[in-house]
Amino acid sequence: MQEEQITQSAQGHQHEHRSDTVILPAPTPWPMVLALGLSLMITGMVTHWVISLLGLILTLRAIFGWFFDIFPHELHVAVPVQTGVMKIASTRTTREQLPVSASHRTLLPVETFSVTSGIKGGIVGGIAMIIPAALFGLIKFHSIWYAVNLLAAGGFVRWASESTAFLCQFHLEGLLAATGIHAFTSVLIGLLYGAMLPMFPRKPILTAGFVAPLLWTGLLYSALGVISPVLNARINWLWFVISQIAFGLVCGFIVNLQVKVRTPQFRSLPFAVRAGIHSDVPLTKDDEL
Questions:
Q1: Which residue ranges have biased composition labelled Polar residues (predicted)?
Q2: CB-based burial of residue 24 (10 Å sphere; 0-12 exposed, 13-18 middle, 19+ buried)?
Q3: Per-residue pLDDT, 224
């Protein structure tokens, strides 16, 4: 039987491949028989040696049968192919889009603030934020050092169990730590303002003074318990929001006072567009130069 399969396979290789058929490997059951034999061999290790013997017999027979399906010639079958045009249809409806006319163009920022503008705004805004924070400490704890030490306690694990009286006292390491944390955070947010304000040119005061502070106050409110449990347990969120609004108003005002610079998107536009020239006549390369 194996010799007949080999002879049929060799004869199949001699026939020319017709255009209406596809040559595919012949189906064979030996991979499944091999998997069954291996499974029975492993199962017999925890049951009975007869199961392993049966698995060994099936494994050897599958290896022998699979080998002669490939050597000396791989068995193939000719599968007929039916050609036709398949229409692809969908029941989903497409979303209507606005027509793009010749006057339509992408809105790109043509001006933005430099990096130094954000740094300046962050520094001045950070100084302005100190005033309501110190005012809160004076009103509630009669000490301007409470807010400073509370911010520094976020980086000192040993200060987590300290009393309110301890936080109301002056500590040099607390002042240095709070100054570093506050300065670093203020500069980062100032850089964010420098990149964000050109995107909202119509209402910068509303965006910088109220929308942005309320957004990251909400983010801190939901995540501060994981970031700093000490701050989360003692922070006064009303005064924190007031401090953030003071920072946003002052930082946004300082950033808006700075001179804007042209963006790379604007500098890559043709000269006629940058100059504001409107014409229906197409420009040549000499005109653009």
A1: 1-12
A2: exposed
A3: 80
